[in-house]
Amino acid sequence: MDIKVWLKEQMVSAEAYNTDLLLGDFLNEMEKGLNGESSSLPMIPAYVGIEASVPVGESVAVIDAGGTNLRIGLASFNEAGEIELSNFSKQAMPGRDKEISASEFYTVLVDALEPIKDAFNHIGFCFSYPATITPKFDGHLLHWTKEIKIPELVGKHVGAGLIEALEQRSMTNKKVVVLNDTVAALLAGLAQGQHFNASSYVGFILGTGTNTAYVEQNDNIGKLDGYLGAGSQVINVESGGFSAFKRGALDLQLDAQSEKPGGHIFEKMLSGVYIGSLTLELLQALTSEGVFSDAGAASFSIMKDLSTIHIDNLAADNGRDIDVLGSEAFTDADREIMKTVFMGVVERAAFLTAANILAAVVKSGAGQDFEHPVCVNIDGSTYYKTYQLAEQVRAHLDVLLKERGLYIRYIQVDDAPVVGAAIAGLTTF
Q: pTM for this structure?
């Protein structure tokens, strides 16, 4: 049995997709989202733009709230566009271990900001939780994720609450801009992009989840409700929800068995939290095809989950722990099939990632000459740590961009949430 042919039949192959149709569907969903029509892509305005230059030497306070840790401190940029950090504190994200009040949450933030109160007027607040961003650069918290338990803040504006808490400590005339991590990833490219004449910017994240931000140009600004200024602005695509394309039977099965069927469709085909599950589903489907040893097939039939890290280590043959996959239950031939299936999943993820980034570049209307490329900042552990994923994304994009006469420049910004939040705080007001 030819495993690669079988994977193509399951649509777990770049060859199973028509690039022009996929790109057209993506762009169509983007346009519908901008117009306020029903779409799998919400196209949420971030209410920040890219016109302002990043000032040199000016300090801004930065808050990075997301995941495990909360980081707060001062940031500025030097002549080379490099960020310089000082007075940074790092602690566990409040509300993760136990439920706390809104007041307790803001006390933690204000306590960290008070020692540096005379060094900043503006605050860039990267808030990596589901929130609607308002035209006043605030974030209306929809609900908590990542096990955070601060129920009083749900439905509230986190930026306004922070300003109120600061004023109660006599820290007045401070302004805050709230943004999510994908918008921060885009803005994090601004300091570098200005040095190589970038024509526009894209922020892309591929970790446990995935999302994209790009810059919408002037012609569509009027469609964006509540925009306060002229010119371009950043759009949070929420690309993990893209669903206007055909999927294979096993993708549909994985979606049906997930915690939120029908949601985050695109994410379930390429993000780190799903790659292992999809690979296991494919391997279990293959047990009925007689390609595995009897012991290997039996082991797969009872396996409940498969770690992305373990199957990735197997494929990379990097000597790291592969757990049960290295047991005597599987033959070397079994493991070769595992590698082939996993690399099929990775190759498709790379193609879909490339199509996603391509759609953002095309929609931006920029990058049409070599001297003024689109600056694409890519962040996320899945993108950089998954075996051969980054290389395959670039290989696909090289072809797709060349066919359309478009140019991009890849960058990788360390600490992108902090860098992007700092730039937002320095350039928004």
A: 0.92
